[in-house]
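Input:
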Amino acid sequence: MGRTTDNGARLQRLVIDAGFTCPNRDGTLGRGGCTFCDNNAFHPAYSHPEKSIREQLDDGIAFHRARGRKADGYLAYFQSYSNTYGPAGKLRERYGQALAHPAVKGIVIATRPDCVDEEKLDLIASLPGIVILELGIESCYDRTLARVHRGHTFADTERAVRLAAERGIDTRGHLILGLPGETREMLLGACDRINDLPLTGVKLHQLQILKGTPMALEYEKHPEDFLMPDLTAYIELLAEMIGRFRADLRIDRIAAAVPPRFLAVSPWSGVRPDRIRVLLEKKLAEKGNPIPPSPG
Ligand code: SF4
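Output:
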């Protein structure tokens, strides 16, 4: 997983599955989930809800050390499902278990915008160390959110980001580039909507359609509804979006790579993140745009 730089320190994220689910899966909003979702595609082998959080962290550290990845410390990355979906007492207990690990310097909490309220945000704001809230915005357009069965609106995102910012929480937004029905112009227009939010950063990646998902079937029937830019067009799109974002907006990620066995459709794959970054930097330099700091 990604690294985050904190005042020069290299912090490795360790993915935690703390046993949460989401309202789009447990029947509260739906049972099928978002049409693009397969959480298994993002699970490293060490992350499993049947293990304690401490065990997942220890195994995650061993996993990265075995691959020669040096780190000055670790961030517990509550990534799987919606990690604020539960009563505040449960959240306090799970986050506390992670923060009690001696090598953990902080926490990243991924969740849906409609799964935070003032009580939970007060709790998150009170946590010690580095605390990042990662909100799954996915799209700035309600038509798209409805089409992918997201179960929330962009107004939910606006509300969640503002409540988090009022509490001084470092809040990043996650966007998928190329959801069905979205054009290049819509994605460029989304930059203005993002700029209006008090976010500290965004995490961007290309749409990857996963095997067995409703979106894979949708693509089979209507491939013309998907932008699917090839790598050159994707880099061009990224560069243009980054040029439109507020200069102070941190760019946390620029691409994603699920293991090939999960992939049904992707306009490109197998390109290393550092290669994508080199291509992006070249394109930004051509356009005269500043190069954002390394993604975390
Ligand atoms: S993407 Fe998140 S909100 Fe959507 S179904 Fe998957 S876990 Fe639930």
